[in-house]
Amino acid sequence: MVHKWSSLICMLFMLLLCITGLPLIFHSEIDQLTHKPEFIGAVQGNSSASLNDIVEQSKMAKPGWELVFLVWDDEQPIIRAVMGESMNVSEGTAYFLTFDRRTGKRLLARSPNEGIMFFLLDLHGSLLAGLPGALFLGLMGVLFAVSVISGLVVYAPYMRRLPFSAVRRERGPRIQWLDIHNTTGMVTTSWVMIVGVTGIILTLVQPLSLLWKHGQLAEIAAEYQGTALTATVVGPDRIRDAVFTNVPDADISFMSMPGSPYATPHHYTVALRGNTPLTERLIKLAIVDAETGQLEDIKNTPWYLTMVNLSVPLHFGDYGGLPLKIIWAVLDLITIVVLGSGVYLWLARGRKGAKRVEEIYDAAAQQQEPPHGDSV
Q: What CA–CA distance (Å, rounded) separates 70 from 341?
């Protein structure tokens, strides 16, 4: 009963997530093909462009808009300036400008919040409904986890009388699909639980970000509560220099401007990531005074944000390069078979079949014997 109803409630939503998740596994490769910036002219050397110039170009391109973030791409030599009509900008309303981070030249590139991949990501992450949609999908993920665990309990009796992965072709199409459903479900159990649990975590990104903002970030800002900046804010070039002087092997992920959602009105926040596949998702935050350009502190992100950062590559198979992504895609396709066969089995049952199955399971439970009829 638990397996049946937990599966029925979430099955169609999980099927949608598996279908939309399949191209998202290869989002980096697809983005490079469809969003690849056009480098204007020959680019030589690896010198760093002036961030101050990038800021000025961004403000000239969007007069009256606020520069909220500078984001370093981790695969291409580019920096994206994220602009908003106010500092409280969302990904869907932001305006992106792309620059060569070696020369500071603006590049011709489509905005990452446009196109089919952004649509699929929004559909996959929130059903196009923002935070309510994300939380609803989180609930469906919990039901799916319950369905998987209860499915193991349902399938266990059959393992005592049928060979593992046996498909009873002589019993008709419904029994064949039943055995395929059970077998493929068992094969993908570990992967489904990893992707399911990380998916649940990712639906909580906005609430956890607010928790961090009103926790660790609020503690940093508390010292300056009620005070205003007394001097001109220094440019991001000095902020980058201050970080590299104190952490010479730093790899910057993004720089958050003073007053933006991930900084305080008196500080820049610079996110530093590791430079290996295992540490690139482990973020530390450099807190830099916006008036003096002096590095005040380097803080570890709270455990719950670290959990979110580590969940992203596990959910989409970003660890290990293309071979792991291919494995993720194969397992995703198998899971689509599991979910699709589950829908078919429910639609093909009929009232008499449902009543017969319940009688068989009741009798098996009383005798403590594995059932000798149909399963669900």
A: 46
Confirm if 67 and 85 have CB atoms less than 8 A apart. Answer: no
pLDDT (0 to 100) of residue 55: 95
Percent helix, strand and coil across the chain, each to the nearest 5: 55, 15, 35
Report how far residue 149's alpha carbon sits from residue 144's, in angstroms, rounded to the nearest whole number. Answer: 9
Mark residue 133 as left, alpha or beta (left: phi above 0; alpha: psi -120 to 50; beta: remaining): alpha
How far is residue 284's CA from residue 300's CA, in Å, rounded to a whole number? 5
By CB atoms closer than 10 A (0-12, 13-18, 19+), residue 245 is exposed
Residue 215 confidence (pLDDT):
87
Rounded mean pLDDT for each run of 10 residues along the chain, 376 residues in total: 78 92 90 68 61 95 94 88 90 89 87 86 93 95 88 67 60 66 76 93 92 86 74 90 88 92 90 76 89 91 90 87 91 87 72 47 42 41
Q: Which residues pair with 97 in a beta bridge?
A: 81
For the chain, what is the largest distance between any 2 Cα atoms, rounded to a whole number of angstroms? 83
CA-CA distance, 18 to 1, in Å (whole number)? 24
At residue 375, the pLDDT reads: 40
Distance CA 209, CA 203 (A): 11
Which residues contact residue 197 at a Cβ distance below 8 angstroms, ignoring those fewer than 6 apart? 141, 145
Q: Compute the chain's Rg from CA coordinates.
A: 26
C-alpha dist (Å) from residue 142 to 179, 274, 340:
25, 32, 19
* Residue 171 DSSP code: G
**CA pair distance 355, 366, nearest whole angstrom:** 17
* 270-278: Cβ within 8 A, 24+ apart: 270/239, 270/240, 270/243, 272/243, 272/247, 272/298, 273/74, 275/249, 275/251, 277/319, 277/320
- Model confidence, pTM: 0.80
CA torsion sign for 80, 81, 82, 83 is negative
Strand, helix or coil for residue 105: coil
> What is the reported pLDDT for 201?
95
Alpha-carbon gap, residue 96 to 180, rounded angstroms: 47
